[in-house]
Amino acid sequence: MTATKQRIIKTSERLFFQYGIANVRLQQIADEVGISVGNLAYHYKNKEAIVSAVYDALLYELSEILSAYLVYPDLSDFDKQFSDLFTFLNENIFYINNIWEIERTYPDIKKEWAALNNKILLQLKKRIKYNIQRGIIKQESYPGEHDLLAQSLFLSIDFWIPQQLLRGKPVSATLYKKALWGLLFPHFTEEGKKEFDKIIIPILN
Questions:
Q1: According to the 3-state scheme, what is the secondary structure of the chain?
Q2: What CATH number is associated with residue 5?
Q3: Same domain, yes or no, for 36 and 71?
Q4: 124 & 183 share domain
Q5: pTM above the 0.85 mark?
Q6: Alpha carbons 182 and 198: distance in angstroms, whole number
Q7: Among 43, 103, 153, 169, which is disulfide-ready with 164 (CB 3.0 to 4.6 Å)?
Q8: Residues 110, 56, 63, 82, CA torsion sign
Q9: By residue range, what is the domain housing residue 194?
Q10: Cα torsion at 193, 197, 198, 202 (round to 10°)?
Q11: pLDDT digits (tens, 9 = 90+) for 27-81
Q12: 70-101 CB burial, b ≥16 within 10 A, e <16
């Protein structure tokens, strides 16, 4: 990607977050980048092409994060994904303001985004199952408990940052991960608590 295209993408992300996709005009993007509309059209023929390019980059980055699955054999694997997802979501917070616009206007992007979100949820379920097998997470107290745990983790992964911003609260990787580990900790066995104290507590402190 050329430097100009990169500037167009980054500027568009910022404007989409600030005003919403529907309210951003090509002239506005061109002015912010410091080029003419004609020059902008040379790189991207219309706003739809810019939106597609922005989300192509976004979806590629997320798919790369999800490809690093079970890299470590202990709880640090959970922590690595939490860290990677925080960085990704914090740097691409514009997407949260535009969920409904994507839903209405860009069905292909919506489909790809949904597929990757389903993959996040599936990986959470698999990580929970793996740690049950290791004796780190307790067996279910009732049917479906771990599915609910995975869904709670997933919702916190996606929406913790915008909720903090909405409430005027601080946003940091440590606070984000503490919120996620807080959901997991009650499900640890004694062995799980020992591993958490040994591996995760030093990272969070």
A1: CCHHHHHHHHHHHHHHHHHCHHHCCHHHHHHHHCCCHHHHHHHCCCHHHHHHHHHHHHHHHHHHHHHCCCCCCCCHHHHHHHHHHHHHHHHCHHHHHHHHHHHHHCHHHHHHHHHHHHHHHHHHHHHHHHHHHCCCECCCCCCCHHHHHHHHHHHHHHHHHHHHHHCCCCCCHHHHHHHHHHHHHHHECHHHHHHHHHHHHHHHC
A2: 1.10.10.60
A3: no
A4: yes
A5: yes
A6: 16
A7: 169
A8: negative
A9: 53-204
A10: 150
A11: 999 999 999 999 999 999 999 999 999 999 999 999 999 998 888 899 999 999 9
A12: eeeeebebbbebbbbbbeebeebebbbebeee
Tokens of 25: 């005009």
Question: Cα–Cα distance between 66 and 185 in angstroms, integer?
Answer: 23
Q: Domain containing 61 — which CATH number?
A: 1.10.357.10
What are the tens digits of pLDDT across the range 116-163? Answer: 999 999 999 999 999 999 999 999 999 999 999 999 999 999 999 999
